[in-house]
Task: structure prediction
Amino acid sequence: MIKHLITGGCSFSFGKDISGWTANLTNLLKEKNINLTYEHTGYLSQGQELIQKKVMLAIIDALDNGFNPDEILVVVMWSGTSRKAWYIDNPNIIQKMKVGWKKFQGGMSSQFLDLKNNNTSKEPNFFETFNGTKFDYNPYGGWYFTVDGSDCTLDFVKDYYMIDANTNGVGKVHLSLENIVTLQNFCKLHKVKIVHQFFMDNVFKSIEDNKNHQIINYLYRQLDFNLLIKDGMFEHIHSYLNVEREKSIFISHDERKLLDAGRNYFDSDGFHPGKYGAKLYCENVLFPFLTNKKLI
Result:
C-alpha cells in the first residue's frame, strides 16, 4: 500500500494548485488509503535540476521519517529542457541581478528559495520588474532559476544560453537527461517506485532526437521506458479540443482560449492545464498507467 506520495515538476505540477494533476492523484490514492501523506515539491518555472534535487531531498526525508521504500510513490512531471538553475549567495552577484531585474518586462517566480520552496529570510522582500509585476526573493541568496535567461543581464547567464547551437541543444539535453536518470537510479537504489511524465512532448522528443549522440546515448540506455509516459500533458489535453498533437504547439494562447471557452481544459492564461483538463489527464492517462504497472 502507498502511504506517502512525492510529486515534482514545474507550474504544471505546482502543489498549491488544488485542481492540478497532483491534487487529483492525491485524492484518487486517498480512496485506497485515507491516511495517505504527501509532499508536492513542484514550483513555477523550475527545470530538471531543481525538480531532481527537491524530489531527492523529499525521498531522503521520507525514508528518515520511517516510511518503508515500498510505501513511497514518486511521480515526476519533467519540465522544459532549456531551464537552468544556479545556487547563488554572493551578495555582489545578487545586487547585480537586482539591477538587471529592473529592466525585465515580464512576470517572474519567487527567487533564491531553498529546496523546500521556502524563503528563509526573516522578512519577505519584494522586487518590482519594469512592467510592474512583483515577486518575492531572499536577499541572502539561494536557488536562482530561469526559463530562458531573459530575466537576467549577467554575462554568465547569457553565455550559458549561447554555448549550444540551439535553444534545446545537445548540451542542455544532456543536463536534462542526466537529472532524469540520476533521480530514477536513486529511486531504484533505494527500491522506491518512480514514474516519469513530461509536461510537453518536446522534452522527450529532444532526448529521442539526440539519442545517438555520445553524451546522450549512455544516459538514454539507462532510461527505464517501463516507467515512462512519453506523451506530454499539454498535447494530451488538446485532444479534448480535437486538436492534433503536432499542431497544438502552434496555437497561440488567445486562440486556445477561444477553443476552450467555457470548458476549463486549460487555465485562464491559455497555456497551463485547467481544472477539468488536469482531472481528465490524471484519470485517463496517469492513474491507468500506475494501475496497469501495478505501482499502486
Summary: Strands lie at 4-8, 37-40, 72-78, 84-88, 125-128, 134-137, 142-146, 193-198. The CA atoms of residues 89 and 141 lie 4 Å apart. Residues 84-163 form one domain.
